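User: Can you model how S-adenosylmethionine sits in this protein?
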Amino acid sequence: MRFDYRPIGVIDTPWDGPENMPIQPAGAAGVEGTVRLFEEYREGLQDIEGFSHIILLYHFHRSRSFELRVIPYLDTRPHGVFATRAPRRPNPIGLSVVRLLRVEGGTLYIRDVDMLDGTPLLDIKPFVPEFDVPRDVRAGWLEELQHAARGRRSDDRFAG
Ligand SMILES: C[S@@+](CC[C@H](N)C(=O)[O-])C[C@H]1O[C@@H](n2cnc3c(N)ncnc32)[C@H](O)[C@@H]1O
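Assistant: Here's the modeled complex, given as structure tokens:
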């Protein structure tokens, strides 16, 4: 089976390379970007401005290959790629919850961006606490380390 996904827009951010950029939106607090939705999809934005946060799904376009065990930014030990948020994955799809500031035409002004400039956008969904924040959450190997994402910056270890 193959899936022929096409980008529906482009995400513009201040980050032009993986060196020294945030590894999650939590580490990108206040950093603004835009989503430019292609003309043919703009009708699909109706009612989006009522949401304070949106989920962006995008293609890690600068990731080339993948490994099934990786040493992620927040640890020195290897973990299975599916137990991490590493950008090099069999299907290089990224997910970020960002704040939606305003919508002007087909442009969404967003904050807390942790993706590279020019990242192709695959989908937008509204963030809904009742749907997206489960109770009794465990964070696995990240339990003690997750808060360090605020201060951690990436490097080029996942490039190529
Ligand atoms: C650890 S990933 C997390 C991204 C997303 N929040 C997620 O969980 O799927 C973020 C890192 O991926 C890399 N990255 C961001 N955008 C990328 C892109 N378009 N192509 C390849 N790597 C990218 C950067 O090194 C960035 O710091």
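A couple of observations from the model: The CA atoms of residues 129 and 135 lie 11 Å apart. The longest strand covers residues 93-104.
User: Helpful, thanks.
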